[in-house]
Design goal:
The chain has nine helices and ten strands. By secondary structure, the chain is an alpha/beta fold. The strands form two sheets. Strands 1-2-3-4-5-6-7-8 form an eight-stranded parallel sheet, with no helix packed on it. The chain has a two-stranded parallel sheet with strand order 9-10. α8 links the parallel β7 and β8 (221-223). α8 packs parallel to α9 (231-241). The longest helix has 12 residues, at 175-186. It is elongated, with a radius of gyration of 19 Å. The relative contact order is 0.08.
Amino acid sequence: LNGNNITGKAADSICDIIVSNCRLEELWLNDNHIDSDGIIKIANSLNSGCLKVISLSDNCVTDEAADAIGRMITANSQLEKLFIRNNNLTSVGANTIFTALQSCKRIKCLDFQNNHITDEATGNIALVISSNTNLEKIWLSDNSFHAEGIGEVCKGLQHISNLKLLSVNCSDITEEASYNLASAIANNPSLEHVDVGNNNFHASSITEVINTFHSLHNIKVVALNNNEINEEAASSFAEAMKGTIPNKEVCPFSASKWG
């Protein structure tokens, strides 16, 4: 039901559909105008235990709906994919949702991009990441993280090894957090897409991250936009990419500060 200008007024009708289809495995409600009251009604009806994919991106989800989303997650422990990007969650709601996600051990995709999540939620985020060895894709860009919080998330990423996509654009990754990020990348040689653009990397720390690309034999997309990349970092990147450039779809460096 993506992109239909659905509002919370339609929630009761959606609930009727859900209840009459007790084996429902996927529900996509992206790009609508469903408010938290509507999301609460829908989430409360999703208790069959069969749900594997729920996508609520681009709606009006706030912390008010977090408890209902948490109960929905707990009732559907087989959940594999959760998309809540471009909403209005803060750390309060995120903590509730990620606490519930600790009961799910089959998570493959988590998308919380462009909310208002701060470091106060990164402990629970790291716990969910480290306990889901099947995790393949995670989007955390455009939140309100700082170096300490994103460093904690990266420590969680060091406990898994099957990641294919990592997006932490605009996450205030400074030198302090870059070493944890480098370890997380090195521990996931399956990575195909790495987006670390628009952070606060300086030359030495971005070089540390780039050096880990040597182990990424399947890499297709690298985004390093708007960081400080000097000659040493550029040389490291060129060396890391040797022999693999034909596999790359895009390697954007726009607005980076080249030496």
